[in-house]
Structure to design on (83 residues):
């Protein structure tokens, strides 16, 4: 069974080559982005390693602020809940 809508074999070969080239460019771009991400994570990890008390304090402060916001939002309801 030959599909007439597919086109000739040389056209398909050209299209396949273009797709391979595009795939190679995408792989290279992804590789570059992954390298940037690794460097950023490494910088952040070094920062946390050098300043564990500051990181812990910021984490606790963020948790307290989140808890306070959650309590404020839950206490603002106009109806009573059954639970």
């Amino acid at each position: 069974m030959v599909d007439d809508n597919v086109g000739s074999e040389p056209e398909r070969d050209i299209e396949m080559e273009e797709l391979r080239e595009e795939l190679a460019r995408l792989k290279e771009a992804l590789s570059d982005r992954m390298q940037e991400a690794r460097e950023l994570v490494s910088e952040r990890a070094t920062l946390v390693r050098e300043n564990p008390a500051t990181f812990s304090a910021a984490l606790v402060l963020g948790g307290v602020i989140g808890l306070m916001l959650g309590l404020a939002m839950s206490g603002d309801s106009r109806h009573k809940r059954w639970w």
